[in-house]
Write a structure and sequence with these properties.
Layout lengths: L7 E2 L3 E5 L5 H8 L2 H4 L9 H13 L9 E8 L5 E11 L4 E8 L8 H16 L4 E7 L3 H9 L3 E12 L2 E11 L12
Parallel strand pairs: 5-6
Antiparallel strand pairs: 1-2, 2-3, 3-4, 4-5, 6-8, 7-8
Helix pairs in contact: 1-3
Length: 190
């Protein structure tokens, strides 16, 4: 079982469970076509975000295989909701997990995704006892691929045109890290 003490503090962020008052902030992120470009969903309406938020509010712990921990990313200096980060427990017998992240475009390129994803790796390896954690992204999404690489994850696969997303064939990149490769955040390479 994974039920962290909240909020999780990093240098610049608070990672915390979603709350009902996050609707406007989450809508400001998920309503943008640029945010949804490489994801499975289209830009969302306010009503669609309301449904997504209701699900995310429940995703504050992992008790069983298949469950997802989905946390809001809040800037410590401004209090602004800037995105979310998640950890999915993929397999109990194989001790596998997956991380993911989505940020508001105004906060891209500033290291926030790496800072938050580092905490998801820590929770997965050190608290949930995972052996292997993956991260996947659309092959065109170089920014997400760079974040996964900066975390120290290695590219294990480049799947060519393996899925139709939004009506077009897309590539998928798969990155992974083993528990034995996990480094403390201060030990991560640039």
């Amino acid at each position: 079982m994974l039920h962290p003490d909240y909020p999780i503090r990093t240098d610049r962020l608070l990672l915390r469970p979603f709350r009902g008052d996050d609707l406007d902030g989450l809508y400001a992120i998920q309503s943008r076509p640029a945010v949804a470009r490489y994801l499975y969903w289209e830009a969302r309406t306010l009503d669609e975000v309301r449904i997504v938020l209701a699900e995310r509010i429940k995703q504050d712990r992992i008790a069983e295989e298949g469950e997802k921990l989905n946390l809001a990313l809040q800037r410590r200096d401004t209090g602004a909701l800037i995105g979310d980060v998640n950890l999915v427990w993929l397999s109990r017998p194989h001790r596998q997990g997956e991380i993911g992240f989505v940020l508001h475009p105004d906060h891209h390129g500033q290291g926030f995704a790496r800072e938050a994803a580092t905490e998801m790796l820590r929770l997965g390896f050190e608290n949930l006892g995972l052996h292997r954690i993956i991260g996947r992204c659309d092959g065109r999404n170089r920014a997400s691929a760079r974040v996964l690489e900066k975390l120290g994850m290695r590219r294990e696969a480049h799947l060519r045109e393996n899925e139709i997303v939004k009506g077009e064939w897309t590539d998928e990149m798969v990155y992974a890290m083993l528990r034995s490769e996990w480094a403390r955040p201060g030990e991560l390479t640039a």
